[in-house]
Amino acid sequence: MADEKGLIDSLEIGDRKVKVNMLQYTDDTMFFCEVNSKSVFNIKVALNCFELCSGLKVNFLKNRIGGLGIDQITLQRFATVLNCEMMTTPFKYLELLVGGVIREMFFGVV
């Protein structure tokens, strides 16, 4: 929905250009977007709206942000916006190794 409204610039994956902006598994949510301040800011807004609507709290200090092909200054700026820690690649998620440089992208783990 946020992609359709132009709030988050989703990644286009593969030859078919499938748009991906979020993956969820149990209590984890992983966001993916193009590298830009608009998308990161709107992810923060969406998480704040989730808190207001659900009555649940997002612990931003337990969240991590990382990127592929992104300079550290930009990544640090995004971490400041999201009030979370930076992570390095490669990393393991669900026992799968995630990493490698294909193109610029942003991801966050909530």
Question: Can you describe this structure?
Answer:
By secondary structure, the protein is α+β, with helices and mostly antiparallel strands. It has one domain (about 10-110). Helices cover about 25% and strands about 30% of the residues. It contains two helices and nine strands; from the N terminus they run E-E-E-E-H-E-H-E-E-E-E. Strands 3-4-9-5-6 form a five-stranded mixed beta sheet, with helices on one face. A hairpin with a 4-residue loop joins strand 1 (about 10-15) and strand 2. The mean pLDDT is about 85.
Kindly report the average pLDDT value.
Answer: 83
**Beta strand %:** 25-35%
Give the H and E element order: EEEEHEHEEEE
Global shape = globular
Work out the helix count: 2
Please describe the biggest sheet, giving its number of strands, its sense, and whether it closes into a barrel: 5 strands, mixed
Question: Which percent range fits the helix content?
Answer: 25-40%
Secondary structure class reads alpha+beta
| DSSP E strands, number | 9
Total domains: 1
Major β-sheet strand ordering = 3-4-9-5-6
Distance between the termini: 19 Å
Q: Using only CA atoms, what is the Rg?
A: 13 Å
Low-pLDDT runs of 5+ residues are none
Output the keywords.
110 residues, alpha+beta, 31% strand
Brief account:
The chain is an alpha+beta fold. It is 26% helix and 31% strand.
